[in-house]
Amino acid sequence: MLQDLDILEDWTAIRKAMASLGPHRVKVDAPAVKPDRHHHVARSEDGRLFYDNQWYCKGQTICINRKDEYPTSATITTVNNDEVWFRRLDGTKSKLYISQLQKGKYTIKHP
Q: Which InterPro entries does the entry mention (predicted)?
Protein backbone atom coordinates (compact mmCIF):
# COMPACT_ATOMS: atom_id res chain seq x y z
CA MET A 1 0.00 0.00 0.00
CA LEU A 2 1.41 3.40 -1.01
CA GLN A 3 1.62 6.32 1.37
CA ASP A 4 -0.19 9.56 0.48
CA LEU A 5 3.13 11.32 -0.04
CA ASP A 6 4.24 8.65 -2.54
CA ILE A 7 0.98 9.00 -4.46
CA LEU A 8 1.37 12.80 -4.63
CA GLU A 9 4.98 12.47 -5.82
CA ASP A 10 3.93 10.00 -8.53
CA TRP A 11 1.03 12.23 -9.57
CA THR A 12 3.34 15.25 -9.79
CA ALA A 13 5.80 13.28 -11.94
CA ILE A 14 2.99 12.16 -14.25
CA ARG A 15 1.67 15.73 -14.62
CA LYS A 16 5.15 17.06 -15.41
CA ALA A 17 5.67 14.35 -18.01
CA MET A 18 2.29 15.10 -19.61
CA ALA A 19 3.04 18.84 -19.65
CA SER A 20 6.33 18.25 -21.43
CA LEU A 21 4.54 16.18 -24.10
CA GLY A 22 1.67 18.67 -24.54
CA PRO A 23 3.12 21.04 -27.16
CA HIS A 24 4.26 18.16 -29.35
CA ARG A 25 0.81 16.67 -29.67
CA VAL A 26 -0.63 18.82 -32.45
CA LYS A 27 -3.37 17.70 -34.78
CA VAL A 28 -1.90 18.19 -38.25
CA ASP A 29 -4.81 17.16 -40.47
CA ALA A 30 -7.36 19.66 -39.06
CA PRO A 31 -7.82 22.84 -41.15
CA ALA A 32 -7.37 26.12 -39.30
CA VAL A 33 -10.49 27.71 -40.87
CA LYS A 34 -13.56 25.98 -42.16
CA PRO A 35 -13.49 26.45 -45.94
CA ASP A 36 -17.28 26.71 -46.32
CA ARG A 37 -17.52 29.81 -44.11
CA HIS A 38 -17.37 33.18 -45.82
CA HIS A 39 -16.75 36.13 -43.54
CA HIS A 40 -18.22 39.45 -44.57
CA VAL A 41 -17.38 42.96 -43.47
CA ALA A 42 -20.36 44.31 -41.51
CA ARG A 43 -20.57 47.10 -38.93
CA SER A 44 -22.90 49.84 -37.81
CA GLU A 45 -21.88 53.47 -37.79
CA ASP A 46 -24.00 56.57 -37.12
CA GLY A 47 -27.28 54.68 -37.56
CA ARG A 48 -26.16 53.15 -40.86
CA LEU A 49 -25.02 49.67 -41.81
CA PHE A 50 -21.81 49.10 -43.74
CA TYR A 51 -21.93 45.65 -45.34
CA ASP A 52 -19.62 44.33 -48.07
CA ASN A 53 -18.53 47.79 -49.23
CA GLN A 54 -22.10 49.15 -49.39
CA TRP A 55 -23.90 51.55 -47.03
CA TYR A 56 -27.49 50.84 -45.96
CA CYS A 57 -29.71 53.19 -43.95
CA LYS A 58 -33.17 53.48 -42.41
CA GLY A 59 -35.99 53.45 -44.95
CA GLN A 60 -33.94 51.67 -47.58
CA THR A 61 -35.34 48.58 -49.31
CA ILE A 62 -33.09 45.51 -49.20
CA CYS A 63 -33.15 41.91 -50.31
CA ILE A 64 -32.33 39.44 -47.52
CA ASN A 65 -30.97 36.02 -48.45
CA ARG A 66 -30.61 33.04 -46.19
CA LYS A 67 -29.09 29.78 -47.28
CA ASP A 68 -31.71 27.27 -48.50
CA GLU A 69 -34.54 29.86 -48.40
CA TYR A 70 -36.12 32.23 -50.88
CA PRO A 71 -34.91 35.85 -50.83
CA THR A 72 -37.06 38.28 -48.84
CA SER A 73 -37.68 41.91 -49.69
CA ALA A 74 -37.76 44.24 -46.67
CA THR A 75 -37.28 47.82 -45.53
CA ILE A 76 -34.72 48.77 -42.88
CA THR A 77 -36.44 50.37 -39.88
CA THR A 78 -33.54 50.71 -37.41
CA VAL A 79 -29.77 50.11 -37.31
CA ASN A 80 -28.30 49.68 -33.81
CA ASN A 81 -24.78 48.81 -32.65
CA ASP A 82 -25.28 45.06 -32.99
CA GLU A 83 -28.54 44.55 -34.90
CA VAL A 84 -30.58 45.66 -37.91
CA TRP A 85 -34.39 45.78 -37.68
CA PHE A 86 -36.42 45.45 -40.86
CA ARG A 87 -40.05 45.23 -41.97
CA ARG A 88 -41.14 42.70 -44.58
CA LEU A 89 -43.75 43.43 -47.22
CA ASP A 90 -46.41 41.64 -45.13
CA GLY A 91 -45.78 44.09 -42.25
CA THR A 92 -43.94 41.73 -39.90
CA LYS A 93 -40.80 43.05 -38.22
CA SER A 94 -37.64 41.06 -37.57
CA LYS A 95 -34.03 41.68 -36.74
CA LEU A 96 -30.68 40.47 -37.96
CA TYR A 97 -27.66 40.54 -35.75
CA ILE A 98 -24.64 42.11 -37.39
CA SER A 99 -22.66 39.04 -36.32
CA GLN A 100 -25.00 36.91 -38.48
CA LEU A 101 -24.13 39.07 -41.47
CA GLN A 102 -20.42 38.83 -40.67
CA LYS A 103 -20.57 35.04 -40.52
CA GLY A 104 -22.51 34.78 -43.76
CA LYS A 105 -25.58 33.20 -42.21
CA TYR A 106 -27.59 35.93 -43.93
CA THR A 107 -26.64 38.19 -46.81
CA ILE A 108 -28.25 41.43 -47.90
CA LYS A 109 -28.10 43.45 -51.08
CA HIS A 110 -29.85 46.23 -52.90
CA PRO A 111 -32.88 44.91 -54.81
A: Sds3
90 secondary structure, DSSP code: T
Task: Specify the long-range contacts of residues 92-99, CB closer than 8 Å, at least 24 apart.
Answer: 96/64, 98/42, 98/43, 98/44, 98/49
Span 66-111, pLDDT tens digits: 887 888 899 999 999 999 999 999 999 999 999 999 988 889 998 8
The pTM (predicted TM-score) of the whole model is 0.64
* DSSP assignment string, 4-70: HHHHHHHHHHHHHHHHHHGGG---SSS-SS-TT-----EEEETTEEEETTEEEETT-EEEEEETTS-
